[in-house]
Amino acid sequence: MNYFFPGRLLNILILFLALGAALPSPVYGNHEKPGMHYSIEITSDEYKKAKVDFSFSVQDSLLHMSGIGANQIPERWAAFVHDIKAVSADGKHLKIEDMEGAQWKIHAAKGTQVKLSYTIQLDHESHSWSGGVDGAAYARDWGVFYTGRSLFIMNGEKNVNLKATFKIPETWKISTPWEQIETKGHSYSIATQTDLEDSMIFAGTHEEKIIKRDQFELIFVLGGSEITAQKEYFGQIATGILDYYIELMGGIPNPAPDNAFNKSIVIINSYSGTDGEVIGNNISILLEEGGDQMSQMVCMFILANEFFHMWNGKSFTPFNNDCERYKECFSNYYTLKSLFHVGYLNRESYLQVLNNLFYQKYDQDDGLGRLSMTDGDQKHDHWGLIYSGGLFAAIAQDMIIRTATKNEKSLDDLMRGLYQKYGGTDQGYTLEELQSSLSQMSGKDQSAFFESYIKGLQRIPLEDFLNMGGFMATEENGNINISLKEESELNSPEITDGLFGIN
User: Fold this and answer.
1) Model-level pTM?
2) Model confidence band, residue 35 (pLDDT cutoffs 50, 70, 90)
């Protein structure tokens, strides 16, 4: 997903980093049974090079890297691969033929045991990336970040039970969501090839903070003196957000069995700018060194927003793209509520964010009046329309439900209902189901709302719905001015509080 904020283009797409390891020797010992093993060596004097050995049994003639990302580079991920060689178990050198799109042809029969060796040169930062360099790989003085996409050459499809072993400087550590095989050393088991590709790894002298809730584990990775100095603060914020979502939903993330995960990694490093990337269930954030309040706000928004996607987007998902915008609308709304809950936003700053970060982008988006809410596949080019407009649709429905039921029901009930119904399944909700559920909760037919603002092209009159909730809101010249009424003027202060997630 892409985040656009004033003065910045933020492309967020969360980013899994995967680094793998294998048998350390190019020769197979008498007692070794070759498998799908990766061995990665990083040294302190050449930390921008990763030397990779991949031992495997040939499944087909194609060697390949991930087909996702690096689209702007003709060679794609292969641009960073050097000195690729292959040797069979009997010591025979095998021919490898370059192909387009980060693919190679290996001249070996199916079942041949092979050791593939290559070097990844970490010069990704010299390229311009559509999602920011945190979507690829980067180096800092305290360590290196890789994605599985940028690091691993693979053979075959849908492999399971892979292994990765790292050889790193003695003072370094490895942070990854994979399961560690031994208490000592840096060997890990990887459940599937998807977990290999869609993972994140940081190797270096960074710091970690682990947050556990039931069977779920959140691994915080913090690098750079400016970031590590805020270790406890980041941990406090993350813990508060996570606990708010768990209480809201009634449980930890519960995705479909084929996408099950019990760990998520969040990597935050200081950098020259602020950006964020999401891959799979993991998050990478770069926070501008000496950055202003806006930079930190962007960082916190990314963090809270992607946390919520572990429920909305992974535990329960849209059936198809016509619900994509609605997925984002729910997430943005609860992102702001969570930041209020942990004290990062107060009432005044919350209302300012609605205007400064959302309404202005909504008003300026050239898709407004031309594209509908159901055009979720356009979200990367129309952040203001999809993310901001979606947020306003969520606020509108929450105010409608709370007002109609005298605050006995709210959008919270819809979220819990979707989690309970679809959590742990591979089924998804439909737009028609959302409309029906919201109509039932409010006791009012919502078909006109959906036809006008979701399926239709009409501008959402946010001020009308905020006024319904007890606010004073006026729209003027692409801005929405929002203020709280005096408490004595509020007919239902609990409805007003609902916007902030207080009840």
Assistant:
1) 0.86
2) low
